[in-house]
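Input (Iron complex transport system ATP-binding protein):
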Amino acid sequence: MSSGLTTQGLRLSRKRVEILHGIDLPELPPGSLTALIGPNGAGKTTLLQSLAGLLPATGRVSLAGTDLTALSRRDRALRVGYMPQSTAQSAELSVLDAVLTALRAAPGGAGHDDARKEAVAMLARLGIADLALKLLSRLSGGQRQLAGLAQTLIRRPALLLLDEPTSALDPRRQFEVMEILHDLLTTSQTLGIVVLHDLELALRWADRIVLMQDGRVIAAGPPEEVVTPETLARAYQVKARVERCSRGFLHVHADGVSHAHAL
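Output:
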């Protein structure tokens, strides 16, 4: 029995127009981080929302042998944590109260004697302990992203889905958040799937990459197999080199616009 996530024939249509075209994801194992990349309009957010059960996609989504599409919305939400690109923040809650509320809604979280201690520890892990008593409505965009990430992580879901969690962060914070996220997934054996536009972050931190275009997966697997000059030309229409630096990390160097047509 698979312990990770797979999808079979995942499709989604809107107004009789198919948006996702039979998505088959290879098994994504627990404790790993998968980056969804692709140009604007490729279907990354739509796929993430379909995995979360927020859109009425057809097909099979299997997590540890359980078909998530057969579960009630509540049971699915207990297994899956989803963080959208932007979140509505209540003006009446402090950051700490918001994280405590998320923790108490998690399985085994209600009445937790150490709930406050755990919530404070999560804020400290993300470097925002100083924001604990600040109202959500008073946060900057980047601070809201970090607070939302704390709320999502504290629930300890089996599957973590994050839509551009670093888009409002400065480069230092982006690096810190991706490092923390990768470490948390590894230690908790949680499976993470994150939408990223920054190819450098994807190459640096993702164990696997899924490249999408026009609602289809055109490549999936280890970063060095997915992000190549050929796939970048096809998906992004750019001429680029993919090279390893002296520390062994892959980097993309864009040299210009490619006139290759999508297949």
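The chain has a mean pLDDT of 92.
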